[in-house]
Amino acid sequence: MWSDPAAAAALTSGDLATILRAYRAANRLSQEALAAVLGYDKSYVAMIETRKRAPGDVAGRRHIARALGLPFHLLGVTDPDDADFAALVQFGDSVIRLAEIARQSGRVVEAVNELWPLAARLEARAVEGRLERETLLLLASARLALGVSLGTVLPEERLTGAAVWTGKALVLARHLDDEVFLVTTLRMHGNELRKAGRPRAAVARLQHAAALPATTAAHGATLTLLARAAGDAGLPDQFADAIDGCRRRLDAAAGDELLLNAFTLREVHARGLLALERPHDARRVLDGAAGNPAAPQWQVIERVTAGEVLAATGDHAGAEEALTQAIAAAEHRRLPHQLQRAIRAAGHGQLPSVARAGRSALQRLRGLLSPAV
């Protein structure tokens, strides 16, 4: 409720009369109903709202804050937990940024271990209803970052959990009046839906993100993931349009974005063509210049895709080499989902020794990751 702009403005005022009126408006309550919530007489609530009376004691203000789901400090009082929580909030953005750096550099388990305590503490506070607008944005960011990190480190059978976390972030993003964050959340939730086996739903989220204003790089990143989802969903026209859009934005965007660079686009293009049953076209794409990956996990992803394409075009020796490289790197980087892709590719390519190596690596990795996630 407190994410509503009018309610947020009332909180910022710190004025109890304004806050009570905003609470009643948001919940469509009469003064009598609000009095029942607070355990007060209706006339006392009326006097507070008209500023004729105000609870001056700490216990009274704490009671109101607890009943309305307010952070205590907004009513000028403290809670024993407030100091620790304030410190958590103060450094929350830094925790999320550092976790994202860790994820992009291939230290995904480290990212999850950093994000989980922050998200859990914010979720507990949210259950109490005691989050103001600024902290709701932090909660949404923590949910999103944790979901994306889990989507990298979880095995396929648990990827729905990553989509749930990014979906929870989207619930808040739609109410926070921050279009940049909304675009990012739609993009990442769409990608986690695709990985969880819902490519059509992913296309819908990504098309929504692509329709919103964004920078050239951000729009290109959205189109990259849209191309991948459209390929998985068997939508050739949407796939071709998204790939063309990526190319145009790649030429226009400066820098080396994680989701908008030549290496990533080459892998997404080849993988989509393979999904659309065009393996020889995919092989021609892979034979083109690769560039450098923007993050270590993309090198693993590309090696699995290369193995799939090479096996589909009859190059079993090349497929064996690519998948063997992918398995070693995926185990080193702790990427069970990519190991599972490699095992499937080896099975389809009739490479039993590679498949066995992949299953052994996956078993070792499961034992390593189970206690952490």
Helices and strands in order, then pairings?
Elements: H1 5-13, H2 16-27, H3 31-38, H4 42-49, H5 58-68, H6 82-104, H7 108-127, H8 133-153, H9 159-173, H10 179-195, H11 199-211, H12 216-232, H13 236-252, H14 262-275, H15 279-286, H16 296-312, H17 316-333, H18 336-348, H19 352-369
Helix pairs in contact: 1-2, 3-4, 6-7, 6-8, 7-8, 8-9, 8-10, 9-10, 10-11, 10-12, 11-12, 12-13, 12-14, 13-14, 14-15, 14-16, 15-16, 16-17, 16-18, 17-18, 17-19, 18-19
Describe this entry's structure for a reader.
This protein has 373 residues and is an all-alpha fold. The protein folds into three domains: 74 residues, 434 Repressor (Amino-terminal Domain); 204 residues, Alpha Horseshoe (Serine Threonine Protein Phosphatase 5, Tetratricopeptide repeat); 79 residues, no CATH class. It is 75% helix and 0% strand. The chain has 19 helices and no strands. The model has no long low-confidence stretch (mean pLDDT 88).
